[in-house]
Amino acid sequence: MRKRTLHRGLTAFWWLTLAFLYLPLAVVVLFSFNASNSAASFTGFSWRWYERLMGNEEILSAFANSMILAITSSVLALVIGCLIGYGMYRHRHRKLGWLIVLIYLPIVLPDIVFGISEMAFFVQIHDLTGLLQPGLGTMIIAHVTFQIPFVALIVYSRFVGLDPTLFEAAKDLYATPVKRVVHFMLPTIKPALISAFFLSFTLSIDDFVISFFTAGPESATLPIYIWGAIKKGVSPEINAIAALMIAAVAVAAAISLAFSRRRLT
Amino acid sequence: MSETITADIADRPGATPAAEETPREAAGRKASSIEMQGLHKRFGRDTVALDGVDLDIRAGEFFTLLGPSGCGKTTLLRILAGLEEPDDGSLVVGGKNVTEVPPHRRSVNTVFQSYALFPHLSVRENLAFGLKMRGVPATERDAKVDEIAGFIQLGDLVERRVDQLSGGQRQRIALARALVCEPDVLLLDEPLSALDAGLRSQLQVELLRVQKRLGMTFVFVTHDQQEAMVMSDRIAVLNGGNIQQVGAPREVYERPVNAFVARFMGHDNLYAISARQGDRLTTALGTLTAEEAGEGELLLIRPETLDVLPGEVEGPNHLQARVAERLYRGSHAEFRLEIGDASLQATINNRGRHLPDVGDRVTVVVAPEDLVTLSE
After folding, report:
1. Where is the ABC transporter domain (chain B) (predicted)?
2. d(CA B299, CA B100)
3. Is the Cβ of A124 closer than 8 Å to some Cβ of chain B?
């Protein structure tokens, strides 16, 4: 009897937690369909804010920037992080503790510290060489920098989960070094690579702080646009952007999760 | 049906264009001999894995490397595969020095202990992997995979996914994946150790059948002396990176050269020789006459060569004993006998005669021709 009460209590707690996490998101999504521009009362269903989005040049350009930034940085981070992850795997028997910590550090460092550092660094380089004008270029570099650790760790843990004899079996079965990469390593870690790409993509789309410090005047992304627009008050248009971003990130995160769960025996 | 396929694998007519294009495959159908000379390998500063191994393996032989873990048998196998490079010494396979040839350019394939089937590939793709890497065209690959699947009797396993296979099925796929490449030498790294006893003896028989039909050189690694005796044409017993003895199973079991080999082959009846007069050897058991007493300072008496008679019987090489323990095993019984302060193991076949009980006085009869001397 007591056990059942406890069980009910825990179930209620679970739903309460979910509500706490998702109700604010639900409110944003709901009001993005509000017919009036009131943020207080829902007066009827309408697509009008979504239609307004489509006509807003500034928002479309911010959306384009966000996509270019997310895709380019994720691809670059995938290539570099994959190589680092493999290197960490290959040399895992050496004493590399401090190197692993170096890889982890950007993950735990506060974004604002990271953003300020990147900005200061880019300014220095720009003053010295004239290169790295703040804009999409600097943002891509900054994003790649914080995405690499995630990719490297995902790839590394995939390799660690493999039977090490598989590498030897590939050699034994006449695979040259290049063929081992093409026919064994890449296909074997493919789920990890897909997962890492979509995680990087999500991180990039979500990021505001680091983007804010490294952006140029022409390279506002959606979060930066929202930050600017919100100073004038929350409009239902912002709700619509937020709702779209929630959808996009949810899809990317779901893909990432689905492939990271895929375990091979 | 499988007979014709076997014959086909053993001596495929060289008329097919693909066979003419790859002379290595033609060579693969001949069994190759292996010569190892002065192989040394150490790991780190203090771990000596191989301490100067000289060993010749004949073409077409089922050869077993036997020894406890850490004896160097796996290192030796990995050197044969090319997965490990010796610090010193040379390795010749089929008349070619391959000491520094990387594994992907050696016509040697391995059946790994963990099977190492590629999880991202189907069974068929696993079987075809080696052929694909060697550039064999797809249609020929398919034909060879079907052929080997018939030979190993894989049936519908070929169309399954790797994660749908049981341990025994994986083992057979791993064997087929290596055999389909028609290597000069097949290496097997404890391939049966992960299987339960029943399946294990079934696969031992199958492995032997495959080796005899293909006539391929097999090098087999195991720590199980029973398995080694069942399977091998010859056995090399290793310890501490050195070869202790090389010989046919009967030689190694019945005439071990030293105490290590004797104990590893399962012998417990070893006695220090305290005095000798010609062929008369004195040990803690008393004085026994051997047919041919060798140089060694230890006397080996195999438990199954002994006769145990009830009561006290006088005669040459007759020892008076008391039964201290009896283990009844159905087909035979194992006795621990006390002779003075010494103890002696004896195994008696159960032929329905009276089996002595614990505490009985018995007489042990030792045949002079079954006594072996060996060194420590």
Report:
1. 34-265
2. 44
3. no
A165 and chain B in contact, CB less than 8 A: yes
Cβ of A9: how many Cβ atoms within 10 Å?
A: 10
Strands of the sheet with B34-43, listed across from one edge: B47-57, B34-43, B88-93, B96-97
Answer yes or no: do B43 and B109 share one domain.
Answer: yes
Nearest C-alpha of chain B: how many angstroms from A202? 27
ipTM exceeds 0.85, yes or no: no
CB spacing of B116 vs A163 below 8 angstroms: yes
Percent of chain A as helix, strand, coil, to the nearest 5: 80, 0, 20
Give the closest-approach CA distance of B208 to chain A in angstroms.
23
Which chain A residues touch B134 with a CB distance below 8 Å? 174
Q: What is the rounded distance in angstroms from the CA atom of residue B246 to the CA atom of residue A204?
A: 65
Q: Which member of B102, B119, B181 has the closest CB to residue A188?
A: B119
Which domain, by its residues, includes B334? 270-374
Spatial strand order of the sheet with B318-328 comes to: B307-310, B361-365, B318-328, B332-339, B342-349
Closest alpha carbon to B25 in B139, B130, B174: B130
If asked whether residues B295 and B226 sit together in one domain, one would say: no
Q: Which residues of B touch A163 (CB under 8 A)?
A: 114, 116
Hey, is the C-beta of A173 within 8 angstroms of any chain B C-beta? yes
Q: Are B270 and B283 in contact (CB under 8 A)?
A: no
Residue contact B81–A166, C-beta within 8 A: no
From B103, B112, B163, residue closest to A165, measured CB to CB: B112
Per DSSP, helices labelled H in A109-235 are 111-129, 136-160, 165-172, 177-179, 186-206, 209-214, 222-230
The model's pTM is 0.82
| Sequence-distant (≥ 6) Cβ neighbours of residue B182 within 8 angstroms | B9, B25, B28, B29
State residue B237's pLDDT score. Answer: 97
Tell me if B83 and A183 make a contact (CB, 8 A cut-off).
no
Interface check A194 vs B, CB under 8 A: no
Q: How do residues A77-127 score in pLDDT, each as one tens digit?
A: 999 999 999 998 998 887 777 777 788 888 888 999 999 999 999 999 999
CB contact (8 A) between residue B118 and residue A163? no
Token pair of A30 as six digits: 């709901």
The HSE-up count of residue B228 (CA atoms within 13 Å, CB side) is 30
**Domain end among B223, B254, B285:** B254
> How deeply is B296 buried, as exposed, middle or buried, from its count of CB atoms within 10 A (0-12, 13-18, 19+)?
middle
CATH number of domain containing B287? 2.40.50.140
| Architecture of the domain spanning A57-261 | Orthogonal Bundle (1.10)
pLDDT digits (tens, 9 = 90+) for B160-210: 888 889 888 999 999 999 999 999 999 999 999 888 888 889 889 989 999
Decide: B25 and B182 in contact? Cβ < 8 Å.
yes
Which of B254, B287, B303 represents a domain boundary (last residue)? B254
Of A168, A174, A264, the CB nearest to B119: A264
Angle at B163 between CA B161 and CA B165, to 5 degrees: 80
